[in-house]
Every structure is written in structure tokens, then in C-alpha cells.
């Protein structure tokens, strides 16, 4: 296992990049702790697979360094990095049995036969394949093959890191939760450094101890699921995390007050001075309350019943506002305004979170 350090790392697919926009990965410095479970989360094209491929050695960065512990592996081949990889689409040997597929990485390294058997049996139990160990892989379903691929990635105990590139894409939805749970169990049991690439926030938040959110080639925040939800460092994080995401309203900030375009004043939980640039307030739908005549005026567009609660879709001054309403609460015609929990409001300037006066930003490293 190894701590992974990225120093001044950046990458462009152009031979002679001229400006920052030519870089698929903007320059970054990050330290990922030995034994951590990380998820790389972002929309398609944000750079997460590029970053994973640089860490794995499949791609050489345009500049910067990658260190495993104290060892510079920037120019090292993938085989020299002592990692295991699981890709989006299953890679298995159809002519081999399930047992032989799982055992392949261990036999390749000359491990003792009794150790191989014990380890394969253990992994097979974790992925629910102990009953078909003697079957050939050929003819198995795509999700069964991906379970083999996952198992083969996890079977080695001596790896520096295990890298997963959207490994559950072809897995039946019913199995996804179970496999994520098994991956978490494996991490707790053996403490491998794990990096898991996904565009699915549920996968990221349930798998990882720390989630690395990427946007436009940058890591915009690295934090726990709670940090990403409560204090998004960037408006993209607020929008991308949550269902629905955070509400954002343009506002002028003056100390502990936010003034909306129609002149409505909103109390903030803390003082923010007078930040410049495009300033906004952000509030989660869970912390918005419909009121009768006090607060921010809204127009309700529709109501969606999602089972555990109802979601009210409204707008305020032309900007969308979502409100989570508890199941059973009556939605009466006089509910024409919303109020916000002051301590749950975040302030943003040019898309980046502004720290309250006297507090540090805590933007993820």
C-alpha cells in the first residue's frame, strides 16, 4: 500500500498546449493517504479517467510528478507500480474457470498453492460466486463476468492501490448496492488504498471515505460526503451533489445579510463582509420552508411526490427554487413565500465558497 502524491500535475492531449483551456487536467497538487478509500466523481469529460490513467501508468502526464510513497513513478510502467485495476467492461479469460480467473494474478506471482486456494475461496464468498468456481467463464452474464473482474482486482493483498474505472456500469442495479458493500468490507478488512471512478454520486458517497469532485479538469473539492453536502466548495459541487442539488440565488452580500434582486433581505447565519464578483447564496432544498407571506416570494410550478417526501418546484425572480416538503404536510394556497435556515446558507463569489469571517475555507487538498 502507498500514499499517492500528485505534484504540479497537469495533462494536455495537444502536443503544444497554448493556454489553460488546452489542458484536460489543470495543474494540481494533492496527497491521497495510504489506505484511504477515494471516489473520483464528476460528469463525463471532466478529467477523472485521465487522472486515473496517469496514476496507473497508462498515460504519462504533460508535466508534474506522481509518487507512490517516496518513490517517483511518473515514468514507471504500469507493471512496475504494483497496482490492480478493474475496468468499466469486464476483462476475463473465457476459456478458464471462475477459480482460475480469480487465481491468475496470484499464480502469476508464484504464490503458494494453499494460500491461493484460501484467498480465492475468500474472495469468491465475498462476490457470491463460490457455487460456480468450477464453471468456465464463457457463457456467463456480463454482470457475472464483471464480478470475476472485481474479484481478480481484489485478490492480491500486496498491491499499492486498487483502481476502479466505473466498475459497476454493466452490473444489474439490484447487485450494485451489494457489491459496493462488499468493496467497503474488503477495504475495512485489508486497508488497501482504493480509487473508484464514477459519475454516479450514490456510488461515490456510499463507497468512499473521501470524495474527489472534478469539474472542467480541476479537483474542485476533496471531502467527506457530509462536507460535500453541507459546505460545497464550488457551485458545481452544490449542484452535482444531492437530488435535487443546491438552490442558488444571485444576491449582494453585506455582512450577515444577503439582498436579492427584488430587494428582499435574507439573514445569514454568519458575517461574510462584502465579497466582490458574482455573488450568490446557496441553500439545500431540505433547508427551505414554505411560508404564508413572509420571506422570499415564489411561484410554485409543480409538485412531485417522491414517496418519502414531496418536492415543490418553484421559482423566485426567475431563478429555480426547490423545496423538500415532509410527507403529510398540507400544501395550501397561501404558501406563497419561502424562508431559509440561516445557518445552512452558503455564500459564493464567482462560483467559489466564501468563508465566514473568522473561519477558514477548508477547500479540499
From TrEMBL:
InterPro entries, sorted: AAA+_ATPase (IPR003593), ABC_transporter-like_ATP-bd (IPR003439), ABC_transpr_FbpC (IPR015853), ABC_transpr_MalK/UgpC-like (IPR047641), Mo/tungstate-bd_C_term_dom (IPR008995), NA-bd_OB-fold (IPR012340), OB_MalK-like (IPR040582), P-loop_NTPase (IPR027417)
Protein name: ABC transporter ATP-binding protein
PANTHER family: ABC TRANSPORTER ATP-BINDING PROTEIN, MALTODEXTRIN IMPORT ATP-BINDING PROTEIN MSMX
Keyword tags: ATP-binding, Cell membrane, Membrane, Nucleotide-binding, Transport
Superkingdom as given in the UniProt entry: Bacteria
Sample GO molecular function, one term: ATP hydrolysis activity
Family matches, as PROSITE patterns: ABC_TRANSPORTER_2
Keyword Membrane attributed: yes
Amino acid at each position: 500500500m502507498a500514499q499517492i502524491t500528485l505534484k504540479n500535475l497537469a495533462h494536455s492531449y495537444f502536443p503544444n498546449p497554448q493556454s489553460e483551456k488546452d489542458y484536460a487536467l489543470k495543474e494540481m497538487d494533492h496527497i491521497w493517504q495510504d489506505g484511504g478509500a477515494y471516489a473520483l466523481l464528476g460528469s463525463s469529460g471532466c478529467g477523472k479517467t485521465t487522472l486515473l490513467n496517469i496514476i496507473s501508468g497508462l498515460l504519462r502526464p504533460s508535466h508534474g510528478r506522481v509518487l507512490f510513497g517516496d518513490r517517483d513513478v511518473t515514468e514507471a510502467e504500469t507493471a512496475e507500480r504494483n497496482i490492480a485495476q478493474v475496468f468499466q467492461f469486464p476483462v476475463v479469460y473465457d476459456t478458464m474457470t471462475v477459480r482460475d480467473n480469480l487465481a491468475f494474478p496470484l499464480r502469476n506471482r508464484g504464490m503458494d498453492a494453499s494460500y491461493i486456494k484460501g484467498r480465492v475461496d475468500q474472495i469468491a464468498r465475498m462476490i457470491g460466486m463460490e457455487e460456480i468456481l468450477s464453471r468456465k467463464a464463457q457463457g456467463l452474464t456480463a454482470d457475472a463476468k464483471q464480478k470475476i473482474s472485481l474479484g481478480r482486482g481484489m485478490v492480491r493483498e500486496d498491491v499499492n492501490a486498487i483502481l476502479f474505472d466505473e466498475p459497476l456500469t454493466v452490473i444489474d442495479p439490484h447487485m450494485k448496492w451489494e457489491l459496493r458493500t462488499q468493496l467497503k468490507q474488503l477495504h475495512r478488512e485489508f486497508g488497501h488504498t482504493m480509487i473508484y471512478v464514477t459519475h454516479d454520486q450514490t456510488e461515490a458517497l456510499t463507497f468512499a471515505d473521501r470524495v474527489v469532485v472534478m469539474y472542467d479538469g480541476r479537483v474542485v473539492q476533496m471531502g467527506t460526503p457530509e462536507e460535500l453536502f453541507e459546505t460545497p466548495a464550488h457551485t458545481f459541487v452544490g449542484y452535482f451533489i444531492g437530488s435535487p442539488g443546491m438552490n442558488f440565488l444571485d444576491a449582494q452580500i453585506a455582512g450577515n445579510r444577503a439582498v436579492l434582486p427584488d430587494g428582499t433581505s435574507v439573514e445569514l447565519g454568519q458575517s461574510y463582509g462584502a465579497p466582490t464578483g458574482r455573488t450568490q447564496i446557496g441553500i439545500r432544498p431540505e433547508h427551505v420552508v414554505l411560508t404564508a407571506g413572509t420571506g422570499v416570494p415564489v411561484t410554485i410550478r409543480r409538485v412531485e411526490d417522491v414517496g418519502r417526501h414531496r418536492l415543490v418546484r418553484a421559482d423566485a425572480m426567475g431563478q429555480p427554487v426547490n423545496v423538500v416538503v415532509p410527507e403529510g404536510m398540507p400544501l395550501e394556497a397561501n404558501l406563497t413565500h419561502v424562508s431559509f435556515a440561516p445557518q445552512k446558507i452558503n455564500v459564493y463569489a464567482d462560483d467559489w465558497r466564501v468563508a465566514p469571517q473568522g473561519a477558514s475555507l477548508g477547500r479540499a487538498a
